Amino acid sequence: MNLSLYFKKFFNNSQSSGIILIFCVLISLLIANSSAAENFQHFLDQEVGTHLFGLEYPVSIWINDGLMAVFFLLVGLEIKRELVEGELSSFKNASLPIFAAVGGMLVPAVIYSIFNTGTEYSNGWGIPMATDIAFSLAIISMLGKKIPNSIKIFLAALAIVDDLGAILVIAIFYTEQIHWSYLLLSFGVTALLFILNFLKVTKTIFYIIPGLFLWYFLHHSGIHATIAGVLLAFSIPTNASNVEISPLEKLEHQLHMPVSFLIMPIFALTNTNITFSSEMVAGVTSTLGLGIICGLVLGKLIGINLFSLIAIKLKLSSLPQNSNWLQMIGVGLLAGIGFTMSIFIALLSFKGEIPIQDEAKFAILIASFIAAIAGFTILSVSSKENPELEEN
Length: 392
Prior knowledge:
The chain has helices at 3-12, 14-32, 37-45, 59-85, 91-116, 133-141, 149-174, 180-198, 205-221, 227-235, 247-271, 278-282, 287-313, 325-334, 339-349, 354-382; strands at 47-50, 55-58. Mean pLDDT is 87; it is low at 386-392. It is globular, with a radius of gyration of 21 Å. It is 71% helix and 2% strand. The protein starts with a helix and ends in a 10-residue tail after the last helix. By secondary structure, the protein is mainly α. Strands 1-2 form a two-stranded antiparallel ribbon.
């Protein structure tokens, strides 16, 4: 096969981004546990940017708060398109990810608290609430067309609601200080973006420029800046037609390749650099480790499916099109990939307590690995069946 055609086929394959992402995770773990670990961490801690307007941050911050805002922009665009003309266009379908996400946050927090109430780890109840949207979507993308698109959209919507919930938890319970002046400016820019939409402005540049200011104001407000990507996405104009290509669909198409094959691999490479130690391993069997692992793996599985079942039984929601409960179980497990957001909350929960932070990181890594393998396996098995829409 011609080399250029081979690469074109590779990059057009939805499974390829997941393969690259997993490869970057392995490389990052190898670096973190080698003689290059110190130099790599030094690179991530290196401040770049300008003092002007307070835009000098470590490389890791530019990646996690900057590049990942672009990732959230793409996911937000996909969700909005599905809300307007796709799988989430009916109330029953659109409501299910919300109910599922609420259950997927509450049950893990309760399970963690059962293990750790009254202990020195009690403040970490927010750790198992989070779903790592980048890694969970990367894993499900590796299944390609083996599962219905509605399941992928459901996971993406669930993960976004979950991440918004995690951001609110961080803002309310883990943020030391919110700068209200910057937050008010963020509200103002958000209002401007939706006014532009109302006035039917279709040039994408008129949204991107205010979006950059929105990111800046949110970042300085103390709120996780990646939410700027979602807010910007929901302001981009679209239509309910499959014939006319909207500004939203054009931008979505332009972002797909750089997000899948550049931003997400960089994110994985720089956020999986966990150096293993004996203390971390010992922490897995502590109440901290058990609370995190059971919360992420069992809590997400139970919470998402229990709340989904209740919503469907009450006829408030319906299963994603052409899906079944086995696939919902697989999604519930994939949502247990907490990883970066969970690690972020762990760092906030146990500030300055390095040994506890390390134990929490290792437990999150173990839980995320179990959830990824189990979720991928169940979804793979489900693809061998004839998926039918269940009306319960």
